[in-house]
Automatic annotation (TrEMBL):
Pfam families found in the cross-reference section: CNH, Rap_GAP
Record's protein name: GTPase-activating Rap/Ran-GAP domain-like protein 3
Superkingdom field: Eukaryota
Gene3D superfamilies: Rap/Ran-GAP
């Protein structure tokens, strides 16, 4: 292949095509002024794990059959399916397959009842490719023209180390619990450290040549080549200026690496230049390089480079070499799984030992005698339980399609705690996270900010502020707190930025007297409040004052209403004026716990869940109408919490009392009336001890 660079010089790169920015612009440029391109991960729908995301851990059905050519196939489905629907016509497996142009079968589809099939289907789906990536990083000194020379560099330069710090975090491999990219995390056989990061839900591990084991007796550095030579994408960081001999893919002896990203650093203007070499069979992938391909904004360069590398590996997996191999593996696994199921095809239908069953796709709970229906419900509950356990295990080991990891250095299990103080001397009343710190309200010493990097807590409010309830809303720059008790209780609102500025500039410790401008006056006597956890444009607060509910919203900020003084000096310290009182709703009894439930439209369908007496009720925010949600059959009730949960646009509530947590689906609202009904998604579980409180991590 022949390509020209930005200077118009002809480059011969063998079987690789060269991407060096368009050649229609001269080299007389001002670095950093290039036209931005659309930098995004490409074709996400091709890499969506549909089974993991929409079926695993939820009520669904799985079928197996063979088409007219005797090729086995599997079908997973739930009631949420986008096909033409007729209330008079049963939605069957056959009609669904017909919509997919599968009309002829050698063996008609049969349902697989064994819940363990979910594990096999998850393995099948994982053949679509990894959700995490490993990339090689090769350091080349100025003038080095062979791979033996490049792989023999024991250490990198200061500029190279600076580039590695830009790519990600330096992690210790021994004991590393995240994605390891084929590196040894037990015995240090592949080095002591590596570079790791998370980008848009993908975990990335970099095989850095200078961090992999070096051998003085082995000129070819086989151990280093074993990893980097088997990476689909490799970054080559080359020292020297543009006049120096440049890297070419022919310098690296590897039949596996399909993409090289050549990076050069210019210390004179603190910029990076990028060039991409792609094997000719790799489909074109973005983002296109700017002209010239020079980046002075380092964070911008990092984003561009990581997206380019991920898109490049995805594109490479579509080449015949990789696609055919993956398809062969998938076919083999499908046939192997089908062979395991063949004995069940000859068993009597509906036999207790039978794994397969004929049933209409729409019959999630078939009409059958009560005893049979209970067995079916129990089977589905076990089916969902096993699926949820598989899903959690996949997430914890870092193989989930959308990684829950937020930072490579702080990767913890979902239930793993973070210790701030081993022996905190005060009783904690309530708390909430603030960045990487913890804001804690104590019983006798006010409110403190705890940080595991600081030896002592930082006092935020003195002991005159007896805070009973609080929420830190960082995106809204708000702290909401309920302080005092009885008639003196009120809700206070603060700007987090104002609190932080006071602590940093003046070591200001606020008192109750200092908070007079932060009171929401109409909340006097408030014994409980709740906020909407999924607020978008509008924050909603419901304050309970005995048996009265007061609905409060935050006014949307209007830029056109900002005066010149505000634009210069910033907003006032107290955000009280931004809140407005909407309406009052009267209840028959004071609520013990509350939760706000967002309706699908937000127009007259928002609800308030309240618990009192022996029941949980739903209250319509607009009309005040109450609907019975759940009755507690117990002589004594200790209400713990009501937590709103959302999935696929539908709201649910986790109702917690005594030793029990009961999940109740609040199906899509029909106008102003919630469709509260028994649902196969409803479930409950019990604690060994009665919890004091239950929360969720967002």
């Amino acid at each position: 292949l022949i390509s020209s660079d930005a200077d118009g010089a002809i480059q011969r790169a063998g079987r690789f095509r060269v991407e060096n920015g368009s050649s229609d612009e001269t080299t007389d440029y001002t670095p950093g002024t290039w036209r931005r391109t659309d930098v995004h991960l490409e074709n996400p729908e091709y890499h969506t794990r549909w089974f993991f995301k929409y079926f695993l851990g939820k009520v669904h059905q799985n079928y197996v059959g063979t088409d007219a050519e005797k090729n086995p196939f599997y079908l997973s489905g739930s009631q949420k399916i986008c096909l033409p629907y007729s209330p008079t016509k049963t939605l069957s497996v056959k009609s669904i397959l017909s919509a997919m142009n599968l009309d002829r079968f050698e063996k008609a589809p049969r349902e697989i009842l064994n819940p363990d099939i979910q594990k096999d289907l998850l393995v099948l789906e994982e053949q679509e490719g990894s959700v995490n990536f490993k990339f090689g990083v090769l350091y080349a000194k100025d003038g080095q023209l062979t791979d033996d020379e490049m792989f023999s560099n024991e250490t990198g330069s200061e500029n190279f180390n600076k580039f590695l710090n830009l790519l990600g975090d330096t992690i210790i491999l021994q004991g590393w619990a995240g994605y390891r990219g084929g590196l040894d995390t037990k015995n240090d056989t592949t080095g002591i450290n590596s570079i790791y990061t998370v980008y848009q839900g993908h975990e990335l591990m970099f095989h850095v040549s200078t961090m992999l084991p070096y051998s003085k007796d082995n000129k070819q550095q086989v151990e280093r080549k074993r990893h980097i030579g088997n990476d689909i994408v490799t970054i080559v960081f080359q020292e020297g200026d543009d006049a120096s001999p440049s890297f070419k893919p022919s310098m690296i002896r590897s039949h596996f690496t399909h993409i090289f990203a050549l990076v050069r650093y210019n210390s004179q203007n603190d910029s990076y230049r990028l060039k991409i070499f792609s094997e000719e069979s790799v489909p074109l992938f973005g983002p296109p390089l700017p002209s010239p391909p020079v980046f002075t904004d380092h964070q911008e360069f990092r984003d561009f480079l990581l997206v380019k590398l991920i898109n490049g590996e995805k594109a490479t997996l579509e080449t015949p070499t990789f696609a055919q191999k993956r398809q062969r593996t998938l076919d083999m696994l499908i046939r192997s799984l089908y062979q395991d199921l063949i004995p069940d095809l000859h068993k009597v239908p509906f036999s207790p030992q039978n794994m397969l069953n004929r049933r209409s796709f729409s019959d999630v709970l078939p009409e059958s005698p009560k005893s049979a229906r209970k067995k079916e419900e129990a089977r589905q509950a076990e089916f969902v339980r096993i699926g949820q356990a598989l899903k959690l295990k996949t997430i914890v080991r870092g193989d989930a399609p959308t990684s829950l990891v937020t930072t490579g250095l702080c990767r913890k299990e979902p239930w793993e705690s973070q210790s701030f103080y081993n022996s905190f001397p005060y009783e904690i009343v309530c708390s909430d996270s603030w960045g990487q710190s913890l804001l804690v309200a104590t019983d006798t010493m006010g409110v403190m900010l705890l940080d595991d990097t600081q030896p002592l807590p930082v006092q935020v409010f003195d002991k005159t502020m007896v805070v009973k309830q609080m929420h830190v809303l960082e995106p809204q720059d708000l702290l909401i707190a309920r302080a005092d008790k009885g008639k003196d209780a009120r809700i206070y609102v603060y700007r987090l930025s104002s609190l932080k500025r006071g602590l940093e500039e003046r070591q200001l410790i606020r008192s109750k007297c200092d908070s007079r401008e932060n009171k929401l006056e109409k909340t006097k006597g408030c014994h409980l409040y709740s906020i909407n956890t999924h607020h978008g444009a509008e924050l909603r607060i419901v304050a309970a004052i005995r048996n009265k509910l007061l609905l409060i919203t935050r006014k949307p900020l209007r830029p056109d209403c900002l005066c010149a003084v505000t634009m210069v000096t910033g907003p006032p310290d107290s955000p009280v004026e931004e809140f407005q009182y909407i309406r009052e709703i009267c209840l028959c009894d004071p609520p013990v716990v509350m939760a706000l439930v967002d309706g699908p439209t937000g127009e007259n369908d928002n609800m308030i869940c309240v618990a009192y007496k022996h029941q949980f009720d739903l209250i319509n925010e607009s009309t005040g109408e109450a609907y019975r949600l759940h009755h507690v059959d117990a002589s004594r009730v200790n209400f713990v919490a009501a937590i709103d949960v959302y999935e696929d646009g539908e709201a649910g509530l986790l109702l917690c009392y005594n030793y029990i947590c009961y999940y109740k689906k609040v199906c899509p609202f029909n106008g102003v009336t919630p469709m509260i009904q028994s649902n196969t998604s409803d479930f409950h579980f019990s604690w060994n001890q009665m919890p004091n409180s239950i929360g969720t991590q967002l």
